[in-house]
Fold this protein.
Amino acid sequence: MTSRSLGHRAPLLWLVLPLMAGLAIGRSGDLAPAPWLLGGAFLAAAGAILAGWRDHRAWAPLLVAAMMLAGAASYALHRPRLAVWDRLPPREARVTLRIDRMFGQADAGKASGLATITRTDEHLRELAGQHVYFSLQLRPGEAAPVRSAHVAAVGVLATLPRTPPADTFDGYLAGAGMNYRLTRGRVLAEERAADGYHRFCARMAERFGRILGEGVADKRPELTAVLRAMLLGQQNELSDEQGTRFRQSGTMHIFSISGLHIAVIAGGLHALLALLRLPRWIRFIAGLTALWLYVDITGTAPSAVRAFVMVALVESSLVLRLPGNPFAALTASALLVLAVAPLQIFSASFQMSYGIVAALLLFGLPLGERWTSAWAPFRDRPKATWSWIHHAGDWLWRATAGALAIGLAASLVSAISGILFFKLVTPGALLANLVFIPAASLVILAGFASLLCGLAGFAAGAVLMNHAAATLLWGIDAGVRAFVAVPAMWFPASFAAPWVGTLALVGLLAAMLAGYARGWRGWQRGYWTPFAVVALALAAGVSWTGDSAP
């Protein structure tokens, strides 16, 4: 496959990659006011259209320039900085917050999340419209705010750094577009109640939590906590010990509502609607509506929203009977997400999820195909003469080769991103994920079935499914405990500088993209370049900081 054919198969790369570069440039400093950047982007886009109409080669660099300028402008618009506040110390402030997102809390007396400042005292009026992280102390019996509610609060307001380290909570907040923290706060009054839809989502989230605890919460609270973390994204339910074990084993992604969870839930919904034998368009609309409700009820985590967009694009191609192209769907999903929430590009979740999926498509699947075409059991025997043993052996080899190739692709990305964001190297993550991801998929299916039974009023079915999920989780937890106790399964490590890890991740994906564009032929034959990039990054850019196991 040539680079030209790659451009035809994924033309949105011409938009996505320059947009990402523009966002990174915008983050590096104030280049120019946003209106100037937008004006430059408009002129460059107009020039690209004119050059394309005249069939002039200048359309490509002009399009790249337009997207880069648009990315820089988008960063300035989505995270507007007030320079004077960077020089001010933390101060007490009274503000009105519109609640945009709530975080789970282990302490019922606290509430935290993300909000937009809608009103302030007169001397702080420049803060109106700014995004802020808040942490509030609740009075006894006081309920936590619900999304879309407007609450008056008072607390200590401090500015976040412009470019905090990516592996810190401040880095996460900056990636979400926050400029301020409001801590040690308390609610003064609810100025406007949440709308009916978000109150419904809050009630359903509480109901989901009760359903997933039916029959198991009193007997095995620690397993119930893990089940709720997996199905509802309530990672606050996990103990510190559980969270540490899952990070050390490289399986923490199982407990964030992301691609795996949305794919499994989407598959369950698809199977359920297929049993009802509804028309194709009704199944499509009902399935996506139900899937979005699940995403919204569980807190609209960015990773879940990205996975939903990807599923929606794939389902749309099936309904419209368009040729399937997973890489084009991936780039379209990235473009849509960045158009709505461009600062997600700086989050660990975005970089890891899109990086891993891109690695699967660019490297893992072609490698698996190469292995199965290079060697096949019973190749010299006519397939018409195969017995069930031959068919089973052939299927087992193909499944094993595909799983190993996909696991290698994910592990290459995780080797760099794990150090960059979690300061851990997990050499055993490939083996752990090969075992635990299928088991986790069964847990998600059991939890989904439990929710369906509970919503339908079939309590006995919910209890049965919860017990099945708890049994699987007991096995996963025991396996993870044994795994992290094995020497050399994980190491603390860090890059000498954050930019080294970012450069290594970009280089890895670039090597995969270049190999895919050339059909993994020529000097890239053997799929060796991604391994070389990772080996170079680990050898030259990593500081090993301790022993692997306690």
Q: What stands out?
A: Residues 195-346+458-485 form one domain. The longest helix spans residues 388-422. The CA atoms of residues 36 and 213 lie 55 Å apart.
